[in-house]
Amino acid sequence: MSKHFITDPKTLVKDSLCGLALSNPHLVLDEAQKVIYPKNLSAVRQKQVTLFCGGGSGHEPAHAGFVGPGMLTASVSGHVFASPTSSQVLSCLRRIYSTDHGSLVIIKNYTGDVLNFGRAVERFKSERVNAGKPPPHVAMVVVDDDIGVVNPNDDAEGGVGRRGLAGTVLVYKVAGAMANAGGKLGAVKEMAEYTVSHTFTIGCALNAASVPGIGMPRSLADNEMEIGMGIHNEPGFETEPIEPASVLVPSLVRHIVDSLPFKKASGGKTGRVVLLVNNLGATSNIEMGLVTKLATEATRDAGFDPVRVFSGTYMTGLAMPGISITLTLVPDGEHGAKFLALVDQPAFCSGWTNHTRVEDAGCTDEAAQGPTTHTTPARDARWESVISTSYHSVVAAEPQVTHLDQVMGDGDCGQVLLSGATAIFEASNQLPLNDPPAALARISSLVEDAMGGTSGIIYCLFLDGLAQQLHHVNSSALTPRVWGKAMLGALDTLYMYTTARPGHRTLIDALEPFASTLESTGSLSQALDAATKGAAATAHMLPKRGRAVYVQQKENLADAGAVGLVSVLEGIVSALQ
C-alpha cells in the first residue's frame, strides 16, 4: 500500500524523532543532527562505557527506540533507508564520548554505514590528537547476522559480507547490559563481538514496503513471497508461492541451522539459543503469535533449546508485511549463565519489552475447570421432534437469513444460526431430555461452542436464564403459560447484560412478543404470530444495536436475527401442536 501519514517527506524523519522524544521524557533530540540521547547524558558518561548506533531511518523502533538505561546511550538517524553523514555521526560521538570509560560504536553491515561511521571515528581520533589530547578509546563493531544472502566467495575475496538485520538488537541488549553493569570497554566489545559472530537471521516478506514520498519500488504477486528480502526492499534469494505458516516457518529455521555460518559457529553441535521473532513492520499481532509458536517448535525440532524467546517489532522495513527469525547461540557453562544474565537485565527504552519473571506457583488447571456436572442422556420423542423440526426449519430459512445479513451486517448470521441448530440436532440423543433445566444448560454449551459471536452469546444467556427459571419447576407443571413466564424471566437475565430492547431492531423484537403472548394467553399459535409480526416490524425500524447501526439502511428489510429466531420458533410450535 502506497498511502502514508506524512506532511513533508523531507521533514518526516525529524518530525518522527520529535514525536519519540515527546512521548519519552527521558530523551532529548538534537534536531539539526538527528541525534537522540538521554537527559542525564553527563551522568552516564561518568558512570560507564557509552554506546551508540545509527543508520537510515525506516527501521523503527531501531535505532532511536533503543536509547535508554541498559541499552544504547544515543542514536543518529539518516534519511529513510540512507546512512547518516559522517558529520552527523561525528557530532553524536563528540556528544556521548566517555573520557573515563571509552565508547563503543555498533552498526549494521551496509556500505554507507561502514564508511560514514568509520570516517567519523577517524575524524574524532584526529581532532583529539591534533588538540593535544590522548588518543580516544573508541571501538566499533559491525553486525552481519543475515544468512539469507551468503556469498561463498566472501571469505576468499573479502566481499561485502552479510547484511545486518534484527540480530543487531540483541547486540545492543547484551553490550548495553554489560556497559550498564560497569564492564570495561574491552570486555563490552568482546561480548558484542561474541554476539555478532553467534547470531543468525533470515527474513521473509509477502511484499516490498512503500517508501513515503516515493511509493512502491516493486511488488510481488498476490500469491508470492520472497525469502531473504532485505529491510531496504533489497531482493532476497528466492521468490516462491506462498506456503502455509506451518511449512514456511520451520523451513526458515532449518535454513538458519543448515547454513555454513551457523554450523561453523556451533561446531555442528546442538545447544541453547536465544530466539527473536521480529515483525518487519506490517504483520498483525495475531500472525506474530502464530509465527512465534511455530518458530519455537521448529527450533526445538532442530535440536536446539530456545531458553529465551522474544517476539515483537524490533527492526522494520517501514511497513513491510513480513517477519524475520533470529537465533543466537548461548555459550556453554558459566559463560552461558553470564550471557543470559545480560539478556535478562532490564532495559528501559521504548523499543524493548522486558520479560516478566515470576516463580511457578503450581498448576491451577483444576480450579479453572469448575465443578464437574454429570448428566445421563434420556430419550423423549416429543422433545426430539421439537429439535428435529426446528433444525429443518432453520435449514430452510438459512438462505433468507444470510441474504438479510449480507445487506445490513457481515453476512454470517444464517450460517452461524445453522451451526448452532446443527450442533443441537446432532447431539439430541445425548441430551437429558427428561430434565428440561439440565437439557437447556447442555444446549447452551453446545450453542456457545458452535455459534460464537454476539448472536451466539445472546442465545446462551437466554438459555442459561431459562434453565435457572425452570430449576424448581416440576416437569408435570410445565404448561405453556409457565414456559412463557420462565421465558420472560430469562429475558430479564439477558437484559442485565445487553441494552437491546423491543424496538431496537434485533432478535428481541421477535423473542419478547413470543414470551409475553405465551405467558398471557397460553397459546403457542398466538405467540408465534406475535413473534412473526415483531420480526416483520423490524423492516421499518431504525437500527439501534448491532452492526446494522453503522450501515445505511437502503431497503425495508427485516432484521436477520429476528427472522432467524422466528424460524426456530416455527419449528418448536410445529412440533408441539
Task: Tell me about this structure.
This protein has a 6-stranded mixed sheet, with helices on both faces. Helix 3 crosses helix 4 and helix 13 runs antiparallel to helix 20. The mean pLDDT is 92. The protein is built from 20 helices and 12 strands.
The gist of it:
The protein has helices at residues 12-23, 41-47, 86-96, 111-130, 154-157, 167-180, 185-197, 245-257, 260-266, 285-301, 333-344, 365-369, 381-408, 413-426, 436-451, 453-469, 480-495, 508-521, 524-537, 560-576; strands at 27-30, 35-38, 50-57, 74-80, 103-108, 138-143, 199-205, 224-227, 238-241, 272-279, 305-312, 322-329. It is an alpha/beta fold and 577 residues long.
Shape: elongated
Number of strands: 12
Distinct helical segment count: 20
Lateral strand order in the biggest sheet: 1-2-4-3-5-6
Sheet-strand content, in percent, reads 5-15%
**Sheet of most strands:** 6 strands, mixed
Average pLDDT = 92
Q: How large, in whole angstroms, is the Cα Rg?
A: 33 Å
Fraction in helix: 40-55%
- Structural class comes to alpha/beta
Gap between N and C termini: 60 Å
Spans of 5+ residues with little confidence (pLDDT < 50)? none
